Amino acid sequence: MSVKVLIPTPLQKFTQNQAAIECSGSNIAELIDALEAACPGIKERLCDEKGQPRRFLNFYVNSEDIRFLEGTKTAINDGDEVSIVPAVAGG
């Protein structure tokens, strides 16, 4: 199973400057582990010490925010696109 993962610019140093990479997994948690295997050090930037996505990062599966689905247990399928989007704030 192959899923396209869109990587934000600040994290591309872990993906050899690739903006998108192909990974696999049956859910977001497995996908994050696959990303770590392919790009050592990236999981620490994506997840807190409990393995949950960091507050300032949003994960989307085919444009659906995983916070409104099943979080890291959100299922992914072959051909899906997962976007990792840093939160933007300011005033």
UniProtKB/TrEMBL annotation:
Domain of life: Bacteria
Any matching Pfam family: ThiS
CDD domains in the record: Ubl_CysO_like
PANTHER family: SULFUR CARRIER PROTEIN CYSO, SULFUR CARRIER PROTEIN SLR0821-RELATED
Protein name (record): MoaD/ThiS family protein
Organism: Planktothricoides raciborskii FACHB-1370
